[in-house]
Design a protein that fits this description.
Length: 152
């Protein structure tokens, strides 16, 4: 069975032409995943989408989250990439986490969130200016909404 991964690039740069350090990190991980027959089908530049603020799965007219949510849940693995700014994960990454909060109330008949059985891998870009803190923030939030986080 071939596993599919979706990469989220939570850089602050909205333009697709503007390369970011997160793009470079995602490329390294995509290459590593390919050695295990995991295909990274797409990298989504989240800042290029109109993800409305909120904590539901649809915040109304023009909200791009429902489409992105559908893509995320259609994959086995989420590669969650983003930079560190001012010692913490980017505001774009935080917006994605806020929207995943809806998973808490979207359980199936067995009480499982939509992320049940799916794996997330973090690709935090930055040096010692908050990498541990940012990883801890990201992993705790993703754990809270049901993702499986593999040990390193």
């Amino acid at each position: 069975m071939q596993l599919k991964a979706l990469a989220l690039n939570c850089t602050l740069k909205p333009g697709r032409g503007a390369q970011s350090s997160t793009d470079a990190m995602i490329a390294v991980l995509a290459e590593a995943f390919s050695q295990y027959d995991v295909t990274v089908s797409e990298t989504v530049r989240v800042a290029a989408l109109d993800i409305k603020p909120g904590v539901t799965s649809n915040e109304g007219d023009g909200d791009a989250w429902p489409g992105l949510r559908e893509k995320i849940l259609a994959h086995d693995i989420l590669l969650f990439g983003g930079p560190i700014w001012m010692g913490q994960i980017s505001s774009v990454a935080k917006r994605v986490l806020e929207r995943m909060d809806a998973f808490l109330s979207e359980t199936d008949d067995e009480g499982r969130m939509p992320s049940h059985g799916k794996v997330v891998v973090a690709a935090i870009v930055g040096n010692e200016d908050g990498a541990h803190f940012s990883s801890a923030q990201l992993f705790q939030a993703l754990n809270d909404v049901g993702w499986t986080i593999p040990a390193v």
